[in-house]
Structures are given as C-alpha cells and as structure tokens.
Amino acid sequence: MGAWLAEQRHLAAKNQLDQARADALSTLAPDWRLPHGADWHRKYHLLRAHLASGADPATLTRDTQLGGVKIGSWLARQLTTWSALADGQQQLMTALGLTPENNPLAPARRARRTFEQTVQLLELFLHREGRAPAARESIRVDGDTVKIGAWLAKTRTKHRTGQLPDDHVRLVAALFDGDWTAENATPAVLA
Questions:
Q1: Is there a domain that residue 94 lies in?
Q2: Fewest CB within a 10 Å sphere: which of 17, 31, 39, 100?
C-alpha cells in the first residue's frame, strides 16, 4: 500500500494523476500528498497514533522514543519553533492538543522561594555546618540544590548598598553574632 501511495504522490507531483483519484485520496486523507515532507508526517502520525492509543501527553519527555524514533526531541523542536511551522502543521499539532501553551515537555515552573524561606535555609546551613557559607557553597533540601553562599553574598551586597529592606536585615542579623556582613561572621548558634 505504501509503495502504491508513493506512486500516486509521484504522479500527482508531475500532474499525471487522474483528478477523480486525487479527489478520492483527498477525501480519505487531506494530507495524503505530505505537504510538510514525508519525515515530518511520519513522525507526526507516529505521535498521533501513540496518543490515540490512550497515552497521556504528560508522560512525554525529550527522551521519549517510539519505534526507534526520538519523538520527544522532535516534539520539542515543533513546539519551540512554533512560529516557523506552516499553518497546516500548527493545525495538526493543535488537533493533538500540543501547542507551546500546552507543552508537556516544558519544565514545571517552581514557585520562587520567599526571602523568609531562604533565611530558614541559611539557618539550617548554620546549624549543620557551624559557620557561614562561602560564596560557592550550596545546601540540598528536598532534592533541590540551593546556592545559599551566593544568596548570602548577594544579600550582603544589597545591605551595603542600602537596597535591603529593614525587615530583611533583621531576619538575617538575628542568625549571627555581631556584624553579619563580614566574611567571617559568627553564627549566633555558636556565640
């Protein structure tokens, strides 16, 4: 069947296909001529069949492979270059519910930590280590790596330039004995 369809496409491209047959093929599948290229349509139909089988789009990752095809990376390209896709390609992807707005491959946005939450992480570091963090040190909490040393260095800079609100200054200062902006500041837990 595939060879026959390829022959029909070849004839149509040379304007040698009977119009009645071309119309019949268009009725069966509007994109039978593969207007976006054979490779694009092959990957699209592979993904469409996968989703039609009941697969949840949320389970797709950039590493997802279907039939030896890296469909996840292909999908990522379609969604990140959306504006470069032809209208027909966008319509086909939209019919699958896959658009840049509904991108299952997009990393989940993490809620940004509040200043107060980061101060609590600093306090945890001070209790664990018994010292202030160096500029390149981090702490792992709940599977997340927090660059607590860089955060403290930035907070010190903001304080020195008068950009740190007084309530934030008080929160950090409460964790240290003496001048908390000094590199060798002593944690209050050790004082």
A1: yes
A2: 39
Read off the pTM.
Answer: 0.50
Closest CA to 176 of 161, 163, 191, 165: 191
181 vs 157: CA distance, rounded Å: 8
Report how far residue 12's alpha carbon sits from residue 164's, in angstroms, rounded to the nearest whole number. 70
Range of the domain at 132: 115-190
- 127 and 63 in a common domain: no
d(CA 130, CA 146) in angstroms, rounded, equals 18
The length of the chain in residues reads 191
* Tally of helices (H runs) and strands (E runs) in the chain: 8, 4
Residue-wise pLDDT tens digits, 100-121: 998 888 665 567 899 999 999 9
